[in-house]
Amino acid sequence: MAVSIREGNVDDIAAAVPLLNEIDNTRVATEAGSRHRILNAPPHARRNWWAARDGGTLVGWGTAGIDHDTSARSGYVGVAVLESHRRRGIGTTLLERALAHLVDSARIQAGAAEAGRSFAKRHGFRHTHTRRVSGVDPRTVLTSELDSTRARIASLLEVGPEQTFAVDAESVLDEPGDDVIDAVEYEQWVRDYWEHPDLDLALSQAAVADGRAVAVAYVIVDRESRRALNAYTGSLRAYRGRGFARLAKLAVMRRLAEVGVELVLTENDETNAPMLAINDRLGYRPIENRYAYVLDR
Length: 297
Hints:
With 297 residues, this protein is of the alpha+beta class.
């Protein structure tokens, strides 16, 4: 039976999550979280997706949209195909549909694992930077430093969305990447992140100084698989170099160990030396690299 490719709908999300998790075994995402991310994007993000099915089985998935958190408003695309169905033109067709959706975008970003690098290059994308995926068992991380620190550690639930957003919006300006994340709006941030069902606000932690949160560490948790993703860590500029980010990450490790998580993953740009150093001290070890690509047209 020939593979059919059509525009996706919400009913495809349930099948897309295990497909994407199988293709990328370092991905931490549930159906609820994926549904929330797809369906809560603002209209100007122009998010769309396509499903490739072999009979009744989903074998490929394509996505496209506009990065609404940046003033650059670059487009982005993603293509994933099961290994058993590669080299049959499915990925190329999904990419063509995604690029056609972004016909007005002069700059389009994409990410690839090692296996997808040649595909990206063949279609005119150029490599811009590399990110390291690392992992650690939180039960092996020594967290006794938390017992003697003078800093106050609190969950994101305790510090609340306003203080968390203040740290996020400032610190993310310095996040390495192809575009500066400089257009984060509070109300959309609440929908995208604070209300994301996979972001565990009780396990995510903040370091508090001078009466406010000064560093935050977000953690996405899949309790069924006992895996988590340290999705973001950031500090206010005036408080960097004082160990607050490390304390927030340590607190996350302690809480994750307490709830039985066995693997925490994180991803960092290879140029982000301060965060890589923190992660190395925590015991993170490299697993694989991810590659960022840009298509200019």
